[in-house]
Amino acid sequence: MLHVVQHYVLTTHSYSIGGVPDNRCVASPFPLNARRKIRQWTMDISQTRTPPELTIQTHIMADVIDLTNISDSDEDFEQSYSEIEHGSSQASESSAGAPLPAPGAGPPRLDDTAREQLRIAIATVSGARLRAVVIALAERIPAAEHALFEELVAMKRNKEKTTTEPVPRWEVCVNCDEEFDMGTHRVAGECRYHSGDLEADYDSFVDWDESCHGPIDTPANRRSYPENFTWNCCDGHSLAEDWNTHLTSLASA
C-alpha cells in the first residue's frame, strides 16, 4: 500500500561514505502530479547501480492520504485530491458543531413558546418568590444587577439640593394611591387628591324629595350627578382635579 504525505513528501538520503554516516533530508512541496513523480523516482532508483559503500534509502512518510484507489490519470488524480481536500475541510467544519458564541456573549434568546411560558410564570408566581429570584439574579449576575438598579432605583437630591442619594424609584402616593416615578420632577396637577371632603349641593336637587326618592348624598348620586357635589377645599365639583403633587409616606410623616 502506498501512502503519501498530504502536504509534503520527505525524502531522506542516507549516505555511508568511508564509514561515516551522512543523513540528508530533502522536503519538497507535495505536487498534484506526485504519483507520476514518485513512479519516476522509483524507476530511477531501480536502474541505478548502487556501490557497496553508498546506500540510498527513500522514505515516504505515511500519515494522511491513501492513494491506492486513485487512477493513474493525472486529471483524475487532481480531481480526487481536490475532493479529498474539500471533504477534509467540510469534515473539520462539521465536527466543530454549532459555532461557539463570541467571548462575553450570553445564551441565545428564548423562542416564542418558551418566552410566553416565562411571562405566564412571572405573572402567576407569588410576590415573595419573585422577589427572591430577582435578588438572587442581582447577586449572581452583574449585568442583571445594573439593569435592575436602573429600573428600580432613582437618584434624588436632598433638601439642600447639594447632593444626590439613591432612593426606591417607584412609590405609591399616600393621597391618590397612584404609583409614580421618584426619578421624575414633581409637577402641580399630577395628583388628583383633594384635601377636603365632597359635599352635596342640596339646592341643585330642585325636585328631589328625600322622603320619596331617598337620601341625596349617595355613591350612586355622586356618579349620576357629579355637578351637584363640590369639594369644600376648593369649591370645585366632584370631577374637578386639584393641583397637587404626589406625596410619599415619608414626605407625609
Task: Describe the 3D structure.
This is C2H2-type domain-containing protein. The protein is an alpha+beta fold and about 250 residues long. The chain folds into 3 domains: about 5-95, no CATH class; about 110-155, no CATH class; about 170-250, no CATH class. The protein has helices spanning about 35-45, 75-95, 110-125, 125-140, 140-150, 210-215, 220-225, 250; strands spanning about 5, 10-15, 20-30, 65, 155, 165-170, 170, 180, 200, 230. Strands 1-4 form a two-stranded antiparallel sheet. A two-stranded antiparallel ribbon has the order 2-3. A hairpin with a 6-residue loop joins strand 7 (about 170) and strand 8 (about 180). Helix 4 (about 125-140) packs across helix 5 (about 140-150). It starts with a strand and ends with a helix. About 5% of the residues are buried.
The geometry reads as elongated
The number of distinct structural domains comes to 3
Residue share in helix: 25-40%
What gyration radius follows from the Cα positions, in whole Å? 45 Å
Low-pLDDT segments, ≥5 res: 1-20, 22-30, 50-67, 70-74, 83-98
Strand order of the largest sheet: 1-4
How would a textbook summarize the main sheet? 2 strands, antiparallel
**Strand-residue proportion:** 15-25%
Query: SSE order in H/E notation?
Result: EEEHEHHHHEEEEEHHEH
Mean pLDDT: 69
| SSE class | alpha+beta
- The helix count comes to 8
Number of strands: 10
Q: What is the terminal separation in angstroms?
A: 96 Å
Biased composition (Low complexity): 87-99
Region (Disordered): 76-111
Protein name: C2H2-type domain-containing protein
